Amino acid sequence: MKEVKLFVGPQHPGMHGNASIHMYVDGDIINRAYLLPGMLHRGFEKSMEKRTWMNNIALIPRICVPEPDTNEMVYAMNIEALANIEVPERAHWIRMLVLELARLAIHLMAFGGCGGPTGLYTAMYWAQADRDGILELFEEISGQRIYHMYIVAGGVRKDLPKGIEKKIIAYIDDLEARLPDYEELVLNNPSIRKRLVDNIILPKEVVWELGVTGIGMRSATGEPYDLRKVTPYARYDKVEFDVPTATYSDAQTRMTLKYLEMYQTIRIIRQVLDMMPKGKVRAKVDDGSALRWKVPAGQVYSAVEASRGEYGYYTVSTGELMPYRVAVRGASFPQGLLGLEKYLPGHRIDDAPLWFDTMGICSPEIDR
Amino acid sequence: MSKNSIIAPLKGWKYLFKKPISVPMDDIFKNPRESRDNYRGFHVNDWEKCIGCGTCGEICPTKAITMVERGEIEEKDGVKAERPVVDYGRCCFCGLCVDICASGSLNMTKGYLFNSSDPENYIHMPRELDITGKEHKLGYVKDESSDLLDLERKHMEQVDPGERKNSFVEIVRGFSKQQAIAESARCVACEICTKTCPANMNIPDYIKTIWDDKVEDGLEILYETNPLPSVCGRICTHMCEDACAIGNRGDAVAIRWLKRYIVDNMPDEQYEKLALASVSKKGNGRVAIVGAGSSGLSAAYYLTTLGYEVEMYEKLPLAGGPMRYGAPRYRLPDDVVDKDIGFIEKLGVKINTGVEIGKNIMLGELKDKFDAVFVATGYPHTQHLDIEGSEHNDVIEAMDFLEESADYVRGVSAMPDIEENVVVIGSGNVAFDVARTLIRFQNEKFGKSSVMMMALEREDQVPADAEEVEEGTAEGIIFNLGCGPQKIDINEDTGAVASVEAHACTRLFDEKGKFAPVFDPSITQCVITKQVYLAIGQVPDFSYISDELQSKMDLTGGKIKVGPLGEVKGMPWLFAGGDIVHGMDIINGVADGHKAALGIDKYLSKK
Fold first, then answer.
1. CA dist B345 → A325, B298, B305, B390, B465 (Å)
2. What is the tens place of the pLDDT at every residue in A177-220?
3. Is the CB of A189 inside 8 Å of chain B's CB atoms?
4. Are residues B200 and B244 in the same domain?
């Protein structure tokens, strides 16, 4: 038997989202691999053109399920830029809080994600349980665990519930105290290192070639390219944090960077809670009821630093009730679609899920 | 491999002694975790509070909400008989429906559990009790920042009270384009107003034309149901605004001012083209209309557009009825009335003014000369107050006074003879018209005003519109409410009015809600005045209808009973409408005129 055609996903526990990898394998080694997207093709971008500016907030979080808030954020930023809305100060800080909590949640999920394919289930159990704590916080803040629909054009939907600050502090204190366990038991665990170290290397040239951003880029090039630093949005220019980088990007480095970023995120959350002013949390988008909100004509691109890299929306408005066009720059598009095709061959079958996990790939972003 | 990497994993043992984070399956069903306070779970809708406007369904991104008519719910003004039904196969629990709910009846519960280990117990639709048999707790509710309605009415520019009390300049300035568009954006197009409007004007549609900045389409919609849009855009009793869904939690949409915006912002040529466009030549016959008020004019317009030849008879020198002789100029300038009536005349309606039926020409003659007759003679006289001294010359009836004042402002007669200190009896809209007109006259004549409003009603019972009370107060009306005049004293020497004696009114309505004022003679007051104005209601005048005809009609409570299209029973040629059918109200008049036009068309096309 020379070459076997094999599918991983869309229904596979090691698969990230509803995508499928179409592989031609020789024994254990992948000869060729193609991503088969479209399993979740709900036509997000097209659907947005048929929904009012407000209604879209129910749709966009679905473009990246584990980290939906970046979608809401860029969508809101675009509307605010077009309609020239001044977001209340408090809303900026609440947005940062939500975005950082979401970053924490998705990094934890990445830890969980590499637990499955490597066989180290401890990582998965711990990370998922810890992530659940964040989901509970989100439930209290926004009313839902996964699809928050909380960051809206003009600010955030509602003010933070009373006493949530204490709960957040208690949670991050607890997490921070236990993060060293993650390092010792997951990152330094020989069974996982065997699979991660010197495996699935992302060379520097590939970063430039494909346009990989986020942890992929930072781990390979040593460039501290982080949109929160480069073009600060919300109030990221007012908080202190470091951008961990590396110059050799194997799976282990990328996991380590995620791990280090969690500390920075916790640092940001502490500052946000400290510095958050009181006041209003939402400005009006337009006169009248939400059924008749119009956004002035124009086009704008906004991007935020998602856990997977630069995440942007390009929005065109013709001044009507609905967007004329919204194009999504999915952060995981380069490494997820092109990168996989080009650089997965030569790896083992069971490295494919690890590629997805450590590269940070969210398949709806590719489908959108 | 370092030594540490062998020992480190053993640290995980410490978790053996901690409580597990995972939840036992048994607990999920029997002792489910309660969701957080803000949780967006299953919906809960208070049917008593819900008005069935359907705005929740409008905003729903997944089209999960349909409005279903429920037999047990009664439809009334401002409340539809429909209630929302949520399809949980589609619902995405975004909660936008809660955020936009006009009445505030729709909220979300903490309920999320619908599955059970027992397939028989599995719930497909949330019930009043949750799966564990407990009541649902309230979860997500909206607050000020999540609210998706615009509750605040756009400010309407008005002439300052200090300035306006000296002149008859129109108080309300009207919306600018920007204001009108912003105000029209507040509408949620629920159509509750359309159901409430007597003329069933297509309000959401014409408001939308403002929002779309296509007022010419709006005018066409206005003329479909109302040929007096300029007048109604100023003095309509706006029952639509009372019913407006937005009014449940905030200010109702300024429907009347928006209507006014459409007519005020149409270029004349285009206006004429549209107003005169819809004439058909279908009908064949001649119709006489008695009374050129709102109802008569409305009937004339629609009959003419149906192709009938219409002739109107009006007692007073100018057509318009209360629009000319009732509403003061500061609320309704003459050129506005001219505009609306002008278009009706241009259609070919002949208006014979200064012709009184029953005097110059008899109703019977009209019957012979025309194929059908529509009577809309209104409530021309003031209700008489039967107390001692009320026959005096300086006890003046509101309708006579308003007629004289209108003529004076128009420049065709002298100022009515007014005194420095006057009392107006009554607190309805007409009483306010009288009082505020008097204030203007007094300021003109004496440089100061002193008008006291005396009425049985207490402050919270005043029947006039709130804006009348507010504006009248700003202009300087002195209120003396909750007391009933018992006697008007006449000075025996001079023969002039000296004072009004009044007793406190302790009760206005009896247990059955019938008007039956009770006075307390121990609390009396005596107000010194030289003139008393009576504005305690209006009465019709049916003297032009012969006794023989009257005996055939159903004339109870000063109103003629008619069929759905204005038909007077037993007299197929006679139709009636307006005040004499529905009581004083301009928009009812317009509606009656339209209906009667349809009734006459039906009658004449069968003939």
1. 52, 12, 12, 41, 32
2. 989 988 888 888 888 888 888 888 888 988 888 888 999 899 99
3. yes
4. yes
Confidence at residue B4, expressed as pLDDT on a 0 to 100 scale: 66
Identify which of A197, A238, A214 has the alpha carbon closest to the alpha carbon of residue A312.
Answer: A214
- Whether residue B323 is found in the same domain as residue B388: no
- Per-residue burial over B549-580, b if 16 or more Cβ lie within 10 Å, else e, is beeebeeeebbbebeebbbbeeeebbbbbbbb
Q: Which among B233, B240, B147 has a CA at the least distance from the CA of B190?
A: B240
**Cα–Cα dist B367/B110, whole Å:** 71
- Picking from B277, B305, B336, the residue at the C-terminal end of a domain is B277
Which two tokens mark A172? Answer: 């991050």
B493 in the same domain as B440? yes
Task: Name the nearest CA neighbour of B172 among B266, B257, B263.
Answer: B257
A189 contacts B185? CB cut-off 8 A: no
Q: Do A58 and B5 touch (CB under 8 A)?
A: no
Query: Rounded CA gap, A24 and A345, in Å?
Result: 9
The CATH number that applies at residue B204 is: 1.10.1060.10
Q: Report the C-alpha gap between B536 and B463 in whole angstroms.
A: 11
- Residue of A89, A164, A182, A291 best to disrupt the B interface, most CBs of B under 10 A: A291
Give the side-chain half-sphere CA count within 13 A for A34. 6
Residue B20 preceded by cis peptide, ω within 30: no
Enter the tokens of residue B231.
Answer: 């007048």
Give the closest-approach CA distance of B576 to chain A in angstroms. Answer: 42
Q: B9 in a domain, yes or no? A: no
Task: Give the number of domains in chain B.
Answer: 4
Please tell me which residue, A180 or A356, carries the higher pLDDT value: A180
Residues of B in contact with A193 (CB under 8 A): 5
Q: Which of B515, B537, B559 marks a domain boundary?
A: B537
| CA A303 vs CA A77, A218, A315: distances in Å | 9, 17, 11
Full domain range(s) for residue B66: 18-121
B431 lies in a domain?
A: yes
Q: CA of B147 to nearest chain A CA: how many angstroms apart?
A: 9
CATH number of the structural domain A50-331: 1.10.645.10
* Alpha-helix runs per DSSP H in B145-293: 161-164, 177-184, 192-196, 203-211, 215-225, 229-235, 239-243, 255-264, 268-275
Residue B229 sits in the same domain as residue B329: no
DSSP state, residue A94: H
Maximum Cα–Cα distance across chain B = 126
Sign for the CA dihedral angle at A120, A122, A127, A128 comes to positive
> Are B533 and B386 members of one domain?
yes
What's the gap in Å between the CA of A260 and the closest CA on chain B? 19
pLDDT digits (tens, 9 = 90+) for B169-205: 898 889 999 999 999 999 999 999 999 999 999 999 9
**Chain A, window 268-307: residues with a beta carbon less than 8 angstroms from a chain B beta carbon:** 280-282, 284, 286-293
Q: Kindly report the number of other CB atoms within 10 A of residue B167's CB atom.
A: 14
Decide if A291 and B139 are in contact by the 8 Å CB cutoff.
no
Complex ipTM: 0.91
The span from the CA of B566 to the CA of B561, in Å, is 9
For chain A, domain boundaries: 50-331
Model confidence at B3, pLDDT cuts 50, 70, 90, reads low
Asked if the structure places residue B421 within a domain, the reply is yes
| CATH value at residue B429 | 3.50.50.60
Are residues B362 and B428 both part of a single domain? no
CB of B577 within 8 A of CB of B593? yes
| B96 and B178 housed in the same domain | no
Residue A175's pLDDT band (cuts 50, 70, 90): very high
